[in-house]
Amino acid sequence: MNDKITLGIAGLALLFGIYNTVQISNLDTKIDEKVFIQPATTPAKVNLSAGNATAPNPMPQSNAQQQPNMPKTSIRFDKEIHDFGEVDANTDNPYSFTFTNTGKEPLLITNAKGSCGCTVPSWPKDPIMPGQKGQIDVVFRPSKGQAGKPQEKTVTVTANTEPVNTVVRIKAKVKPLAE
To answer: Is 117 helix (H, G, I), strand (E, B) or coil?
Structure first.
């Protein structure tokens, strides 16, 4: 038990160290061909009167930039497609995709995004240790405009895996509206 706690604490310390490194590297400020690195805890200040100054880019350009030095692990979903069958428009239809960290490093999910506003996922923010299970909770809320039509939506899960993105799917036939 103590070994698991120690491993968990070491994993969290590693992830926080990597996170801080990424935050600091994203705050590079280039002024007159000189690079000044500012601490992640203070906002970047740029003297715009210095000529050709450029402000730091607070948003990374790609998923690879979000996780440049994170150790890679692997994820396996128990089920990658869930079919709700027939559902009514304007209803909440929840489902949980269960997964396992099948790698040897802590799994850190940094994002889960539905393919449209009717598919809203939530995911664990804490690292999932090797061999542990977790879940991505999805709520499908079809609109009246989807009534009478079969629907297939995706949830893209971004994590420190290779590939970075894993896609799970939901299906449903939205019942026609009663007239």
So the answer is: coil
Tokens 């491993």 belong to residue: 7
Q: How far is CA 98 from CA 37, 84, 120, in A?
A: 41, 16, 16
CATH 3.10.20.310 for domain 75-174: no
Q: What tokens were used for 94? A: 């929840």
| Identity of residue 109 | I
Closest CA to 121 of 93, 100, 144: 93
Q: pLDDT digits over 133-176, tens only? A: 999 999 999 999 999 989 999 999 999 999 999 999 999 999 98
**pTM for the full model?**
0.62
Cβ-based neighbours of 8, under 8 Å, separated by 6 or more: 129
**Entry field: residues in the chain:** 179
CA-to-CA distance for 38 and 25, rounded, in angstroms? 9
Domain boundaries, the chain: 2-59, 75-174
User: Is the Cβ–Cβ distance between 170 and 141 less than 8 Å?
Assistant: no
Tokens for 19, please give them: 């996170």
Cis peptide preceding 142, ω within 30 of 0: no
